[in-house]
Amino acid sequence: MEYQGQGWMDPDSNQVYAQAPTATEGQRLCPVCEMEVDPKLAPTSLYKGRTYYFCSREHKEQFEAAPHKFTNAAVP
Description:
The protein is α+β, with helices and mostly antiparallel strands.
């Protein structure tokens, strides 16, 4: 199994069988690892007027050190 940017692919075929998660209304994903987080409990960071939620303090610190690496993949 290998992640190809569009989803997980079986190395023996060209078929994508799982997609990377995306946030929906009311659901938040950590921009570092894309894990679902509870916005009521999650550490947050404000970047360019947008609030980002994190699964851990370590991921918040990683984001704050280089937010440009993570903002393209993140969805509110």
